[in-house]
Amino acid sequence: MKKIYSQVLIIGAVSLFSLSVHAQKLTQYVTDDANIIPDAEQAALENKLATFDASTTNQIVIVTLSELPSNETIETLANKIFNENGIGQKDKNNGLLFLIALKDRKNRFETGYGLEPIIPDVYTGRLQRDVITPAFRVGNYSGGINQSVDQIINKINSGEKYVNSGNPTYNMKGDSFSLLFFLIIIFFQIIVNIFSKSKSYWAGGVVGFIFGLIIYLVTGFIFAFGLIVLGLLMDMIVSKYPNTFRGGGGGGFWGGMGGGSGGGGFSGGGGSSGGGGSSGGW
Length: 282
What we know:
alpha/beta; 9 helices; about 10% strand
């Protein structure tokens, strides 16, 4: 129950940040901006995912990037791409995003609510350790992606809920620190991206109070209320020196969209994710 509550709070935090920076619109099931999937294999993968969507309404989307944008983590970016493109169906939330950042050597499975009982973070974490990491370390990106996708499709088609053979207890301490790190990152991004455009000094304190309260309720860390003072100070700094903190021009996170395949393309069904999934590296 605590985990569900944490994910609901994450949605609210991510929604606040998404007011200022938006992910680029996806038009294909496979967007290979990092150019790590050969054309023929990309076309076959695109067709496989389109067929899976048409027959089951479950949507699996692959996005590869050369590198993560500045001031962005693999977790926040994956959640943003997922929710802004509505991966999965609105009434089922049955989408899954696999995001890969090549130069950062990081990857992320972002899973919709509806698929979490079948594809929980424990399952995707094991895929990352057992399949993706070994393949990616030797440069076999296409093989690792395809093998993972095939296993996920087979698992979803089976309809069986995942049973963890290890300790099924929820690690609240570890997840509390993960949530704390995640929310603080978003807190800093909101202050820099939104309040550098205003001359108000007090708004940062309000945001600091909101984030401090969220972190305190979820983790019990009383020092989280220090974000009130930090928010006021940061708001004052970025408002006084806005050009120092503002990024370049707008637009999406990746350019070109040159890795798309032909065909009908991808269209999100309005699905959403609350931050479920797993991150890995190689």
